[in-house]
Amino acid sequence: IVITTVIPQADVSATETGPATVGALTNITYSIQITNLGPSTSSGIIVTDALPTGVTVFNAGGGTVGGGVVTWSGITLTNGQVTNLTLVVTPPPSGTLTNIVSSTATTQDTLTNNNNGTAASAIVITTVIPQADVSATETGPSTVLATNNITYTVSITNLGPSVASNVIVSDVLPVGVTFVSATGGGTNSGGTITWPTAASLSNGQVLSYTVVVTAPASGTLTNVVSSTSATVDPVSTNNDGSSVTAIVITTVIPQADVQVIKTGPATVLAASNITYSIVVTNYGPSTASNVVVSDVLPGNVTFVSANNGGVNSSGTITWPAITNLANGAGSNYTVIVTAPATGLVTNTVVTTVIDQADVQVIKTGPTNVASGSNMTYTITVSNQGPSTASSVVLTDPFGTNSTFVSADSGGTVTNKIVTWNLGAMASGTFTNVTLVMKAPTSGNITNIAVATAATFDPNLANNSSGNTNAIVITKTVPLAALADIAVFKVGPSNVIGGSNFNYIITVTNLGPATATNVVVKDTLPPELTFVSANSGGILSNGVVTWPTISRLAKGKSTNFTLTVVAPVIDNFTKALVDIVGTTATFTNIIAGTSDTFDPYTPNNDGSTTAARVRTSVESLYILGVNAFNPQTGLYEEYVTVTNNGNTTVDGIRLYIGNLRSGVVLYNAQGTNNGVPYVQYNLPVGPNPPTNTISFQLEFYDPLRLGLSNTLSAVGISGSQIIPIVETNGIGLPLYRIFPDYRPTELGGSRVIVEFPTVIGQTYRMLYSSNLVTWILATPDIKATANSTQWYDDGPPKTISNPNGLTNRFYKVIAP
To answer: Which three-class secondary structure string do you get for 418-484?
Structure first.
């Protein structure tokens, strides 16, 4: 006997994969694969991952962390079995990371160099690429007096996480200012201030500079700061000069020193003319606008003349306003008066600059825009008065992340600033301009509009960068996230009042992306009555809403059906002449929305004609005449209803209302809210002569006081049709069948069937056109005598008029 013990052996292999490069503080995912290459089962496997220095474990994937090592234990693998482990870590701001995986097992391992951490497949080396978010902001005054100094404060901040190297800061000065100084070694070259390169800027470190310039005499000044770094910057929009915080817009408030000099003779002969010379000069620095010169004459002189259009009003000479008096410019005036006979003449010249105009800016634009598509801004500039605003200028600076396309109303672009020269604007007037820009591929676009005028503005808050109504922030949506939802709706253009009809609704995704959470809603006009909506549509507060479509792929469509009842236009009072029908119209609108951004909303917000159905409701024409039948003791009313519309109805229901108490519609076929009705249960089209049908109504009035009622006809749908009852049975003997000739206005001829009866017994009348199919007439007949006469008047007793004695057969059965 030879006993041999087989010692299990298993070759366990440990490999690891991960990225070769990664951005600073961007998580790294390592994938670890442990494989048993056999031949035996390997038990007690322990996997260890020696973490690189400086990383932080984000997710150990079930492993335990300690001493810079992640450990997974208690693993057993059969021959050929593989287990996968995942480890997620957060890297430091920079450096090269080496990660090594290894494994051991209680089962003897035949080959250890593929699981002891020495194999290249078990080692992952990752280089961390530094990233530094450098932010550039600038502050300064929103207003400044003409020719005064302006101080701008520039702040450059490294928001991390890595050190920013070779940081360059530049400040593009507004056109027209004069450079004075810059701290930190900043130098001016062609209107751009550049500071010495900062070799490194650590995480959280801030560079601060100031720039001093002298403002011009007037205008709107836009100052933009930006910065760059040799280190990768993950967010460029906060340092490329396009953000609001990197732009300072300052309005220059003009100042003008206006001086008046007046000369005249010290003495003059009595009753002789006196000539006064007036010189008005602007000593600047700004242009003086709307300068008004007036001269209050002494009360003892007589006005003769004034040059340059001067006008005398109650002893005050006023000259036309000088719209703009430039710095250093002047104007001369002359007044001639006649001196009194004696006395002292004192004349004083008063010069006033009193105009002020509150210019306001409001700007609108899209909150979202498709990547690379055009976006349109509408800017409204208004003058809130009280004076005319002269030399109104509107400017709209845009950053580097959008592209100018066009501007109407004479807008021009220079150095990424769009300018409109709007000229003079009277108090209470406004001007609209349009600016079209092309959106970038990503990021937010901040657009600011500013307006200024040469006239003094007492409220700069509503026309400068501090005015939120003048700022539009637009988010760029990638093309891959766009889904153009379109809704279409069809329905009848004409319906008969009271009839059912359908709307067919189609919602389509025109792409390019799949639309998520699509909701379709139909706002019903108040004239319509909801019946049903397929696919789970629900009515709430006058709006039909269908269940949300979770996903609608590009090019796919979904259809819905909505059923409603058309309104009844009028209740028609019985008369001896035709009642003129009336029509009413209503419009039904469908709309659809989606969680996915829609680049074009007019085709799904209900504003297009394809999403609207306009329907006209047509009435039925009614004629009614009544008379008393002494043979039956019933009042009979002959009624005709004509369809003069454009559509066919499945049937017609005639309501008989306002009956006096005690009066009963003997041959009623049903009631609605207590109002009896009869029905014609076959289609009635719009074309004569088949568009007119008649009813013979029978009323029982125990007091014999005469008949008074109202009539109202509506179209009905197939679901409301009373089915034709076919029956049979052995007929009772009949006495006779003969015609009853009546005037046309009372319905014309009818057929009378006479048969023997037993008082109190109920009988049923059957009629046929072929002696094979027998149809039950309504209602049943309750005998009140030993002989009963029954009248075939057509509807509602039978489905149509008998039209003589040769085409209809009758028999009576006792049920």
So the answer is: EEEEEEEECCCCEEEEEEEEECCCCCEEEEECEEECCCCCCCHHHCCCCCHHHEEEEEEECHHHEEE
Closest CA to 390 of 345, 352, 434, 359: 359
- Backbone angles phi and psi of 480, in degrees to 5: -70, -10
* Torsion of Cα atoms, 581 then 587 then 588 then 594, to 10°: 180
Say which residues have a Cβ less than 8 Å from residue 804's Cβ, sequence separation at least 6.
Answer: 739, 749, 751
Q: What is the per-residue burial (b if ≥16 Cβ within 10 Å, else e) of 495-512? A: bbbbbbbebebbbbbbbe
pLDDT in tens, 242-262: 888 888 988 888 888 888 898
Contact 796, 747 (CB under 8 A): no
**749 class by beta-carbon count within 10 Å (0-12 exposed, 13-18 middle, 19+ buried):** middle
pTM of the model: 0.47
Least confident piece of the model among 30-39, 43-52, 412-421, 476-485:
476-485
Residue 444 β-bridge partners: 475
Round to whole Å and give the CA distance between 420 and 407: 9
The per-residue pLDDT for 573 is 35
Residues 6+ apart with CB under 8 A from 602: 608
Q: Give the pairing of strands 247-253 and 143-145.
A: parallel
Torsion, Cα of 544, 550, 551, 555 (10° steps): -10
Vertex 519: Cα angle to 518 and 521 (nearest 5): 150
Give the list of residues 6+ apart from residue 505 with CB closer than 8 angstroms, or none: 487, 488, 489, 520, 522, 559, 560, 561, 562, 590
Kindly tell me if the per-residue pLDDT of 17 is higher than 50. yes
Nearest to 346 by CA among 337, 355, 354: 337
pLDDT, tens digit, 9 for 90 and up, residues 461-486:
888 656 677 677 777 777 667 788 99
